[in-house]
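Weekly modeling sync, notes
Attendees: S.R. (lead), two postdocs, one rotation student

Agenda item 3: backlog of single-chain predictions. S.R. asked that every request posted to the team notebook include the full sequence so nobody has to chase files. The rotation student volunteered to paste the first one in as an example of the format we agreed on. Action items at the bottom.

Example entry:
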Amino acid sequence: RHPDGRGRAALLAERGRLLAGPLEDVAGALEAYRRALELAPDDVVVREAWAGLLTHAPETRAQARAELLRVLATDPVRPSAWRRLVAVLRDAGESRGAERGLALLVALGAATRAERELMCPRIDFALGAEALDDPLAEQLRETALAVAGDWADALGGSEQTAALVASEGSIARCAAAWNVALPDLASRLKAAT
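Predicted structure, as returned to the notebook:
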């Protein structure tokens, strides 16, 4: 019996993993992942693996960036995708974007010690209701808004946060909680390292 489309996609993804790893056939791996994505275009694991391979060649890094942003649009709190995107941005000389990504990894609790030491102390754009023109900044903004509710609950004891939450709408509450909490989170992280 032959596998269906999803099963074939899984087999192709496994083939891509094997070709990329122990067999060291990057071109073959890229082709296997591409074919898997034709069958299962919403598979973020396969798309991220494909994007990860694309990061190895300077001529495909722009495509890797676009694919990683697509992964993050589906799963905005995926640390491995943020980590790969930070590397792509750093390699492209986009230090501001890389620092923003590191700040988000720290906020998600997924940053390594080295990443925590490299991060900027706070993101440098507003988290208000308006979408941002820069796709990377917009993805960061959406991710922060997606998880800010969890952070606001954890930070409920702060008088400053409580005052802002009481006076603002839901998106503004998230932004307020983020902006109030980030300096404290950064200092706690520095103290812990």
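Discussion: group reviewed the output briefly. The mean pLDDT is 76.
Action items: rotation student to repeat for the remaining queue; S.R. to check formatting next week.
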